[in-house]
Write a structure and sequence with these properties.
Elements lengths: L4 H9 L4 H29 L5 H25 L1 H14 L4 H23 L5 H11 L2 H15 L6 H29 L8 H20 L7 H13 L5 H8 L3 H7 L6 H30 L7 H25 L5 H19 L5 H10 L6 H10 L7 H30 L6 H12 L5
Helix pairs in contact: 2-3, 2-5, 2-8, 2-9, 3-6, 3-18, 4-6, 4-7, 4-18, 5-6, 5-7, 5-9, 7-18, 8-14, 8-17, 10-11, 13-15, 13-17, 13-18, 13-19, 14-16, 15-16, 15-17, 15-19
Keywords: Membrane, Transmembrane, Transmembrane helix
Main location: membrane
Membrane topology: Multi-pass membrane protein
């Protein structure tokens, strides 16, 4: 007897990782705006009275120094646990590298809420970042998400599957960023600034953790599904539609589903391209919030939220780009289009003096998200399914180490060039973006 179609549909829905991606990114978008404004207000209150321009520069350097240490702790602490957790995910259970980082996020954001309510010193956030990283952090969480996304997708549609996950991530970030500024200032008459915003972030993380533990199911791999379909098809117990799909799969896909002999040169070049590109992106995005707070833009929390939301629009345009380009271009060509898009946009950002020019720069970056998920898709085609977690976390750790070093260096460069040319860091990112094209 066959299970009812409704039960089959429910089982398939439970393999979706998208609710976790959406909820965690919504929470992250809330917290990004909240933390930036809490840190800004903290140093604004602790600075001694001085001329406005000097006060603004002192505040910028204080906020920048906070983020240097915060990003170092947040980036380096996952090095202790990320690989081990991903290996456990490959060998024991795929949900381990998802649930443990979500628990870390929940605790660390709770500490931020206590900081706001109890007037704790801002240095508490260094401890929160350390706990977040030791439980895996974004490094382990995203590697686990990519592994689950790759497991249930066919080789021919994997790039599209991974960019769909990125699209959900971006849409959630867009909505969260749009709402974050209003949530930060909207309840300030009744509650401390940021209390409601961080509380919403904590609620989202709690939902994601509970969903991952009690609802989420690990999808079966494409090749195991194919084998099962063939074996049950011989007995005549399957519907024609069920047996037809695996039987008509192309020979090229069957080859790709077999154990893969990885090309070391291809893997090295993909890693090199990803690291150079991440260096360009992370460096620019780390100093961008500081750039927006300073003259000539001097944005408010609401404008910061709008600016962050504009950054998330590229998740939609990059998805559409992959959807269209994958029909006529190779993966490497799509990656290079994305790298060129980011490089051109960040060069424009270096000369932003007015708000409208910021949005023009963001519009030029419309395909900037394509490179990394497409690189992950290409890597998954060169390794066996049982190694997805390890390969993805190695890539993520490489990006984290690059990001930590880049964040520190870029923040110091930004401080040094603050009074000379505040857009200098964006020119550096343009150069690194161009260099990332070479390995591809």
């Amino acid at each position: 007897s066959q299970p009812p179609a409704a039960m089959l549909g429910t089982a398939a829905v439970r393999t979706w990782i998208e609710p976790v991606v959406a909820g965690s990114q919504l929470a992250s978008a809330f917290c990004d705006t909240g933390l930036l404004m809490v840190v800004k207000n903290y140093y604004n209150q602790t600075n001694l009275p001085s001329p406005s321009h000097a006060l603004q520069d002192a505040e910028q350097k204080a906020v920048s120094n906070f983020y240097i240490i915060y990003n170092l702790v947040l980036g380096l602490s996952p090095l202790v646990s990320a690989y081990g957790l991903s290996k456990l995910g490959d060998k024991v259970h795929r949900k381990i590298p998802i649930c443990l980082p979500l628990f870390g996020y929940l605790v660390s954001k709770s500490l931020l809420l206590l900081l706001i309510l109890l007037n704790w010193p801002i240095e508490v956030m260094y401890g929160a970042a350390a706990f977040n990283g030791l439980t895996g952090g974004f490094t382990t969480l995203w590697a686990g998400v990519m592994a689950l996304g790759s497991l249930g997708s066919s080789v021919s549609r994997r790039s599209l599957r991974l960019i769909v996950i990125e699209l959900v991530y971006g849409l959630a970030g867009f909505l969260g960023s749009m709402a974050s500024g209003y949530l930060f200032v909207g309840f300030s008459n009744r509650y401390r600034e940021g209390t409601v915003l961080v509380g919403c972030s904590i609620a989202c993380y709690a939902f994601c953790l509970l969903y991952s533990i009690f609802v989420l199911k690990v999808p079966k791999t494409a090749d195991s599904c194919q084998a099962k379909a063939k074996s049950t098809g011989d007995g005549g117990n399957q519907l024609p539609a069920s047996t037809g799909a695996p039987e008509i799969s192309s020979s090229s896909e069957n080859i790709n589903l077999a154990p893969v002999s990885p090309s070391k040169l291809t893997i090295v070049m993909l890693f090199a391209g990803a690291i150079l590109y991440d260096l360009a992106v992370v460096g620019a995005m780390n100093v961008l919030p500081l750039f927006l707070l300073r003259e000539p833009l001097s944005w408010s929390p609401v404008e910061i939220g709008y600016g962050n939301a504009a950054g998330y629009v590229i998740f939609i345009t990059s998805f559409l780009g992959v959807f269209v380009f994958s029909k006529c271009f190779r993966d490497t060509t799509m990656i290079m289009i994305g790298m060129a898009s980011f490089s051109a946009g960040i060069l424009i950002m270096a000369f932003v003096q007015w708000t409208f020019l910021f949005y023009i720069a963001r519009a030029v970056m419309l395909f900037a998200l394509i490179p990394l998920p497409t690189i992950r898709s290409m890597l998954s085609k060169h390794v066996e399914g049982s190694s997805y977690g390890k390969v993805f976390v190695l890539l993520q750790l490489s990006l984290v180490i690059t990001g930590v070093a880049t964040s520190t260096i870029y923040n110091k460069i930004y401080q040094s060039t603050l009074n000379w040319y505040s857009g200098f860091c964006f020119i550096l990112s343009f150069l690194f973006g161009c260099l990332s094209l070479l390995p591809l």
